[in-house]
Structures
1.
Amino acid sequence: MKLDRRSFVSKSVTGAAAAGTLAFPMVAKAQQSFNWKMTSAYAKGAPFYMDGPGSATDLAKRIREMSGGRLNIQVFGAGELIPAFEGFDAVRAGTVEMNHANSYFWTGKTFAAQYFTAVPFGMNFQGMNGWLYDGGGIDLWNEVYAPFGMVAMPCGNTGVQMTGWFKKEINTVADFKGLKMRIPGLAGKVYANLGVDVKVLPGGEIFPALERGVIDAAEFVGPFQDRRLGLQKAAKYYYTTGWHESSTVSELLINKAAWDKLPKDLQAIVSNAAAACNVISEGWCQKANSEAMEDLVKNQKVIAKPLPDAVVKALRVETEKVLAEAVAKDPLVKKVHDSYFAFKAKYDRWVEVSEEQYHTRIRG
C-alpha cells in the first residue's frame, strides 16, 4: 500500500491536536489550586494550638507542602477574623472553610459533639485514637455534624490534663459550693451540679479573671500551657487526676460543600496531615509538660496534689447522672455514648494487662 506522506502528516497533526484538547482539561483540573481560611478558638502564637509541632499553623504548612501549593490555608487566631467561640457558625455558613478548636465548645449546638473532645472518666490518648480511627468514632462524628453541613476529624491531642488551679484547698465536695471556676465541656455540667458557678472563658482571659478574683479556680490544659498563662501567680494549689479530660482532642472542622469540591488526593492530604498533627502534638505535650511541671513545683513553689478520693468518687457519680440524662433525651447522643463506652469497656480490659502493668510494675 502506497503511503501518502502529506496525508499522513496532516492526520497526525490533527490527531495530536485533538488529543491535546482532550488532555488539557484533565491536566488543568489536576493542577487546580484552592485558597482556604481557617479560624481558631485560640489566640495567635498559642503553643500547641496555634504555634509549634502539630498546631494549626503546622497543619496548614504540612498541607501546603504535601499538596505542592495546591491547597493554601490562611490561619487566623481567635479574634482576628471572628470571636474565639464562633468557629462552628462561621464554618457552617461558609464564611471560612475550616476551624481549629475543640468540639465540646459546641455543646449548645449538639450535646453529642462533646464525646469527640473529652468525656469525664473516659479514655486516654491511645484509647481515644483507637475509638476514633478504628472503632467508628470519626464516622459518628460526621454523622453528628451532617445536619449542619460539616465534617470533622482529629488533628491534635493534649493527653491527660490537670484538674486545675485553686486559690484554696479542696478537701471535700462541700468546698465546691459557690466556687467560681473556668471550666468548659461536660465537666462544667458536672461541677455545676455540685454547686460550682461555671464560667467559660477563652485562654487569654483566664489569668486576669483569676488574679482579680472574678473566678476562684480555673482549668486550662496542663503545666506548660498553664505556666505560660501565668496561672501559678494567681493560685498555688494545682490539682491532678485529669478526671475531666483524660484525653483532649483538637478538632479540624470543615465545611462539607468546600470539602466535596476538593479532589480526592487533596482530601487524602488533609486527612493524613491532620492525623500526623494528632500524634505529633501529643508527643510535644509529653516533653513540654514534664519539664514545666518540674519547674512549677521546684522553682515556683506550686503545691501539686491529687484530689481526695471522696471528691473523685462524687465527681464520678455526678458524671454518670449528667450522661444518663443526656442519653435519655437524644437518640443520637445515645448512639455515640453507647459506641464510646462499648469500645472503652474492651479497651479497659486490654489496659489491665498492658498499660496498667507497665505503670504499676515496670515503670518503678
Note: The chain is about 50% helix and 15% strand.
2.
Amino acid sequence: MSAHASASLAARPGVATPYGRSLLGRIGFLPALLVLVVVGMSATDPQFYGPLNILNILRNAAFLTIVACGQALVIIGGGFDLSVGAVVALASVVTAKTMALVAAAFPGNDALAVACGVGAGLGSGAAVGIVNGLCVARLKVSGFVVTLGTMSATAGVALMITSGIPVYGMPQSFVKEFGRAQFLGLPTAIYVALLVLAAVVFVQRRTLFGRYVYAIGGNADAAIVSGVGIRRHLVGTYVLSGVLAALTGILLTAQVGSGQASFGGDRMMLQSIAAAVIGGVSLRGGIGRVEIVAVSALFLTILGNALNLLHIDSRLQPVFLGVIMVAAVALDELGRRRKSRV
C-alpha cells in the first residue's frame, strides 16, 4: 500500500477493519457499565433518580463533555493536553475580571461587558492553546512536557490575578439569564454542550481538518508524504482544546456568579483524559469518536454522583476512576495485540 493510501485510510474515521472492530467492542463496554451503575443506584438510593439530582448530573456531564471533546481531538492527533484544568480556571477569572472592569467603566451596558468578558475568556484559552501547539509542532517538544509546564504557569497566572479571592461584579443578566437559566427544564450548559458535541462531530466526519487529524495521529510520516500540513493541524487541535476548556470556565463562572481560580484543576484534567480513554480514544493516536467520549463523560459523572450518594470517602473515589482507566487501556492494548496476530 502506498503512503498516500495509508494516510487516506487513516483519515477515514469510519473505516471498518481493525478500528471498526475496536469501536464496536468499546461501544459495548461503556453502555454495560452505564446501565449497571444506573440500575444499581436506582435500586439502592431513591435520591439518585430525583429531578434535582438528574439535573445536577446532566449539568456536570455537560461541563466534562465540552472539555473532553477538546482533549479527545488532541489525543487523536497523537498528543496530550494536561493544561485544560488550569485553562478552565484562567478563563473563569479573566472573564469575570474583564466583565467587572467593563461594567464599572460603562454602567448599564451589560451587553458590552458580557461580550468583552466572553471574548477575553475564550481568547485566554486560545492563547494557551497556541503556545502548546507551537511548542509541540515547531519545537518538537513532547506534548506531555509542554502542557505540564503551561498547566503550572496558567494556574499560577489565575492565582496572581485573583490572589485566591473570587472575582465578583459581573452583570446579573449574565448570571441569571444565562448561567442559571433553564429552557424546557434543562440548564443552558446542556444545550451548549450539545452544540459543541454536534460541531466537533461535524468537524471529525465532514471536514478535511478532522480527517487530517486522524491521519496525523495514525501515521504522521505517511501524512507528511501525502502533503498534509502537520504543523498547522496540530496547532489547531491544541487551540480547539484550549478554547473548549475556556468555554467550560465561562459556563462555570456564569453558573456560580463569580470567577474562581479553583475551578478545573487536576480533577478536570484527569477526568477529561479518562473520558477520552474510556470512550475509545487510543493513546497512540488516530482512533476515537467524540460522541462515544460524551457517553463516557456521562458515565464518569454518574459514577461520581453515585459514590457521593453512597457516602464513599472522597479519598477513595479516585481509586475507582484509576481502575476503570487501567481497564480501558488494557482492553485497548489487548485488542491491538489480537489484531497484530491476525
Note: The chain has 14 helices and two strands.
3.
Amino acid sequence: MSVAAPAGTPATGRRQPRGRGRHEGRIALLFISPWIVGFLVFMAYPVIYTAYLSLTDYDVINDPSFVGLENYRELLSDEKVTLALRNTFVYTAMSVPTQLVFSLGLALLLQRAGRAAGFFRTAFFLPKMTPPVAVGVLLLLLLNGQSGLVNEFLGWFGINGPNWTTDPEWVKPGLVIMSLWTVGASVIILLAALQEVPEELLDAARVDGAGWWHRLWHVTLPIISPAIYFIVVVDTIAALQSFTEAYTAFFGAGNTTYSNDAALFYAIYLFQQAFEFLHMGYASALAMLLFLIVMLVTAVQVWLSRRYVHYTGGAR
C-alpha cells in the first residue's frame, strides 16, 4: 500500500530538469572563472611558452630560432648545471628536516605558553614578513667570520666559529641557519595541528606508562602527520627553488669577495643564463628540467604519504 506525498513535495528520486542543471553549471563556471583565467594566463601559458623557447636559440633581442634539442644536449654536458643541482639537493636535504624539527620544537613550546601563546604566535610569524633581500644582507652581518654576531656568541663558550661566508664547507649550513628565520608559518600550522590532538588519547597513553617521548612519537606525530606532510612538500619545493637570499648574499651587486660556487643554486644559475648572459632559450631548458625535478620529487612524496601519513578515521 503506497502513501501519497504531501502536496508540493517533490517525489523522491525525481531528476532535476536538464535545463536547471545546465544553468547551475554556468553559474559555477562564472564563479570560478577568475581562477581559470588566472591559471591559463599566469601558469599554463608561461609553462607552454617556456617549453617552446627551450627548443629555440633566443637572446630576447632577436626572434627565436628553432634549434630542436640542442639546448638539452648542452645542458647534459654543462658542468655548472651539475654543480648547481648538487648544491641545491644538498641544501634541500639539510634545510627541510632542520626547518621541520625547529618548527615542531617551537610549536610544542607554544602549546605550553598558555595566555601568552597569542603574543608568541605573532612574534614567530613576523620574521616571515621580512623581505628575502633583507634576509640575505642579514646573513652577511650575522655570519661574518670575523665580526659576525653568531661567531661572537660562540666565542662566549670558547668555540672558534667557522668562516660561514668564505669557507665552501660552511656556506650551505650558514644558509640553512638563516632559513630558520622564516619558519613562523610552519610553526602556526603545526601548533594548530597539535591543538587538535585528542587529549583522551594522551591521557590513555599516560595511564599505560608512556613517557613524553613515547607519547610524542606514537600518538602526537601520527595524528599531526597530514600537517607535517604538507609542510615537507611546501618546504621542499621552496628549497629546490631557493634564490633570493643566496643571490643577495653571494652574487648581488657584482659580489666577488665570497666563495660563490658553494652557493650557486640551480635557480641562480638559471637566472644568470636568462638575464645576465641573455641565453633565454638555454635558460628555458633549465627551467623545464627544474619543473620536471619538482614534479618527480613531489610525486615521490605523495607516494610515500600513502604509507606514512595517517588521516582521521584511519584513512591514509
Note: The chain has a mean pLDDT of 87.
